[in-house]
Amino acid sequence: MSEQSKVSRRDVLKLGSAGALGLAGSYFINNLAPFSSSVKAESNNKNHSNMDHSQMVGDITKTSGYKMAEQLLTTFDYGKASKLPNGQTLREYEVVAIDKEIEIAKGIKFPGWTYNGTIPGPTFRCTEGDLLRFHFENQGSHPHSIHFHGIHPTEMDGLEPIAPGQKFTYEFVAKPYGLQVYHCHVLPLARHIHKGLYGNFIIDPKTPREPALELNMVMNGYDLDLDGENDFYTVNGYAFAFMNHPIKVKKDQLVRIYLSNLTEFDLINSFHLHANYFTYYPTGRNDNPSQFTDTVMQCQGERGILEMRFPYKGKYMFHAHVSEFAELGWMGFIEAE
Which of 8, 122, 157, 284 could form a disulfide linkage to 305, CB 3.0–4.6 angstroms apart? Predict the structure, then answer.
């Protein structure tokens, strides 16, 4: 590939966000073999200085990629629950690693390695003290594993690769309560995480939290040309997912966001909320020092819970407070009604 023909993420930024989708789509689809050549991205070279935020994504169609991001926002996998003779709750989960092409922006697909067919993977949920069994089957083309953050026996830590076609059951007691993450831990680690093998893992406290509208958000990135730099940044896997389809909440309703950062190739990511503040609980622990702020930063694997109420009706923008990340897809709206 010549230097003249290569499109960098800096080139994409020069066009602004709407033009970015058109330029990046046409480049990656036409030049990278793993991507579907039958899909065409629209070309829209509007100058960024002439754009307003409502025009950042020209298409309001709910594509398959958007539907995935929307589903992951409010869907929690509690597993199949039963009671053991000692009264303890047993939860069993079915997890399949599978290679799957994922739509990450309009007209742009990514050859992902997934848990259960989505990027990020499902949001597993349980209560502290539950006995958990994750029945893992590797239907992918490479060895994979599941490494859970939390406290558990080392033999359940997910360091051993599970070969294609093989199965393994991870079993441990859920602790401590809070927001955990999980991801593949097979080497090369950066590749397995970047390709999509990660997700959130919520362990609820035994004393339930205050009722709220609960939202799951995983910050991530995609490197399409394999140069070690991300070309798109998203929440829940799809660029600009909640720009044209804002997340609907009620005025003064308590909103709780389970936020994690699984972005590869960048040291930090961040979450910034316009026109409002939130309380941030690192690792989702009530006993951790909290912050009352409008911006938090997370390194890879870091996570926390954000709680907020919206005192006024209207659209509240949220995005990464790294301008490059925002302009390359990590941006959306929450609309209070």
Answer: 284
Tokens 């709910």 locate to 62
Q: What does the pLDDT look like over 251-285, one tens digit per residue? A: 999 999 999 999 999 999 999 999 999 999 999 99
| Annotation: binding site | 144, 149, 183-184, 192
What whole-number distance in Å separates Cα of residue 311 and Cα of residue 211? Answer: 18
pLDDT in tens, 280-309: 999 999 888 899 999 999 999 999 999 999
Q: How far apart are CA 273 and CA 316, in angstroms?
A: 7
Domains and CATH numbers, the chain: 65-204 (2.60.40.420)
